[in-house]
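Record type: ASSEMBLY
Status: queued
Input:
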Amino acid sequence: MAAEPLLHVKGLTAGFAAGPVLFGIDVDIAQGELVALVGANGAGKSTLLGTLSGLVRASAGRIAFSGRDITNQRPEAIVMAGLAHVPQGRRLFDTMSVEKNLRLGAYARRDGNIDSELRNVLEYFPALKDKLNREARTLSGGEQQMVAIGRGLMARPKLLMVDELSLGLAPKIVDRLIDVVKEINTAGTALLLVEQDVLVALDVAQRAYVLENGRIVLAGAAADVKDDPNIRKAYLGL
Amino acid sequence: MTPQLELRNVTKRFGGVAAVDGVTFSIAQGEILGVIGPNGAGKTTLLNCISGVYRLDGGDIRWHGVSIAGLAPYRVARLGVGRTFQIVKPFGSMTVRENVAVGALFGSDSERPPLRAAFDRADSVLELVGLRMKADLPVSALTIPDRKRLEVARAVATRPKLLLLDEVMAGLNNVEIDDALEMVRAVHATGVTVVLIEHVMRVIVGVCERVIVLDLGRTLADGQPDVVLRDERVIQAYLGERYARRLRGG
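Status: finished
Output:
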């Protein structure tokens, strides 16, 4: 018998005042899995992440995380349950120091091990070590993405969702960040990677979901998704 | 022949840091040129130097042989240098067509055209960039790829002779990028010189005849894409091994 997945999404419908964006979404993520979410602009990827984080209201369906129903819970309660979100475009506190940005990721935590978490994050991103006192806005795009991921890790999540890791970043930086994502995953954290650069996402993920017009149209092993002729045509341009 | 745009030793400092450090190159009329380089290499700063947003700390920029260094941005624009911005900022309460008409009204012509002519210009630009069917929509109804198109359309409406595009493909998937490349080719085919700042290699390889690599504010390489992207220094500084393999077809 399969264990209950870490994240279990069933029949999720959600959206905004103008109408739903997501229609009956089913997604499962197991403990320690690395899953890619792929889809065109406007397909609803960021809305799905927002709904999982409690930022967008679900109008139907259910989100279970770690065996608990977290549907439409407050965002901070969801972070405390172990689900952290690295938003698209980094969204750092520009005029605050790198260290404060990182520590804010642990804001909801009530345990005392914040310092050790910070050391842990700096081991993933040694480039940030001598920049802890710099204002976040003075960092390069790649370094800002490191802070954003680091801030997510400071919540000590069981599942980390990263929206558009590669946006606006040089290929070599994306390479390095992807290596760190793999390390984070190897250390036991599950990841949901939303990525416009589909090849990057499918190379690193174990499984993938394809979202189209608010519906999951394909789910499977990342390698199979990558080889699917429709996907190659629609997303890879091959 | 005098190049259309010529940069001589262009330098821009912020505090003690030279963000652009003695960059020299020229662009011929009708070229399509890519500018790539690591984050923080000085690409957007260079574009801001050309379009007059920043005052130079050294060197000179010449437009058809005449110095334009120190000119206000609107003067540079009216000479025929159009540009887009990385973070798109459309007029949110206007329609797509109205946004583009603003570019036509306040653009490169020294005399402001009548409103009617500005809207005619907007219509022909919307046709060119593939937004004709969405002309009367509010900007808020546009998808991300269409917002990028609108950003290009607003710049094209100013009738530029040289168009500077700052990461207009960021956040698009490969198929959306191929569509956007069609738009860039269509604009280029009207005789406009195009400079693209991009991280997306598909763009550089797909459309550029020449590529310049910036690193730490200096020119690291300048040449044909297939040569430059195989340059070991470019792979070291920018591309990384995984992408280099991908480009080699691995």
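Annotation: The interface with chain B takes residues 40-42, 140-142, 164, 167-176, 196-199, 233-237 of chain A (CB under 8 Å).
Annotation: Residues 7-91+155-236 of chain A form a domain with the Rossmann fold fold (CATH 3.40.50.300).
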